[in-house]
Amino acid sequence: MPDPALIDLLCAVTGATVHYEVRDDRGRTMDTLKVIADPAGGYIAVYHCGVGRGMFEVHVATSPDLATWTSRARLDAFASQPHIIGLDDGGFLVAIEAGGAGTPPWLRLLDYASRDDLLAGTAARTFDAPHTLVPRRKYAEGTPNIYSASADRERIEVGFHYFRRGRVDRQGRGVLEGFSEWSATPEPYIDSALERWGVRGNIGGRDAFRWEDREYLLVEGQTEVHGWHTWRTYLYDVAEQSAWPLPILTHGGSAAIANPSITVLDLPSGEPGLVVTAYLFHVGAATGEGGPMLFHRAAPH
């Protein structure tokens, strides 16, 4: 069983600083946002917003306080589900789910040489991953996270889901070598850990973090196939290959909580803590809580 203090940090939204229906300064909802520290001070987030029926764009914004967000650039059109990491050389990597509107999605990696390039939306190079676990023109591979990247960007590890046998999303991991050679394998041990809790629908987005010298994932799982109201978030212990459902409590009692992301960083107060984001599906959301949610809490001393 994970540390109860960690469970409390992840679940007690009512005791955290929380923002529901997060929007940028142009009024766009910051769906599936991923937040990291800005090396220039404050915070950077990537997110997608709807631009038409079944169509999305990926954007980047900055914030001094995790509350107000200034839109900086569109990073990609016809794309969604972004994830970002900063690199030691001052650059950034962004992973997205490309495609949409009837086209089976695929994974795309964007490499930015500097903060200025990121905020201008100018990628130095782009890689589109070929489908490896499902047929390209038939099923999706998407909702990526970036697990790691070598200092020279020659090896990048990416998590994603694939539409297994055209029935349900399951977990995979890909490796990009030399920004040109892609390989991928399923990760059935993550799937099995959630299936033990009755997850029969999709197992989708995930994010990795380190806490008290242990590696964890936050993973979304759907207990019923096609049951949007049954999305839940689970904590997965990498070493133990075990998962636990997180009884996340919002102010209104929203139930369908998915698309989790998490970052360990310094909060606006200067204290170390966690920034957690999720998407509250409207079918299970309380009034005023549907859409992107962000909350942060200081780590216990």
Task: Provide structural commentary.
- The chain has helices at residues 4-11, 115-120, 188-195; strands at residues 17-20, 31-37, 43-52, 55-63, 70-77, 79-86, 92-98, 106-112, 125-128, 141-149, 155-164, 168-177, 181-186, 203-211, 214-222, 231-237, 242-245, 257-266, 272-280, 291-298.
- With 301 residues, the chain is mostly beta strands.
- A four-stranded antiparallel sheet has the order 1-20-19-18, with no helix packed on it.
- Strand 18 (257-266) and strand 19 form a beta hairpin.
- The longest helix has 8 residues, at 4-11.
- The radius of gyration is 18 Å and the shape is globular.
Helix content: under 10%
| Helical/strand content category | mainly beta
| Computed CA radius of gyration, to the nearest angstrom | 18 Å
Strand content: over 45%
Terminus-to-terminus distance: 21 Å
* Number of distinct helices: 3
Regions with little confidence, pLDDT below 50 for 5+ residues: none
Biggest beta sheet summary: 4 strands, antiparallel
Shape: globular
- The secondary-structure element order is HEEEEEEEEHEEEEEHEEEEEEE
Total beta strands: 20
The oligomeric status of these chains comes to: single chain
Mean pLDDT score: 96
Which strands sit side by side, in order, in the main sheet?
1-20-19-18
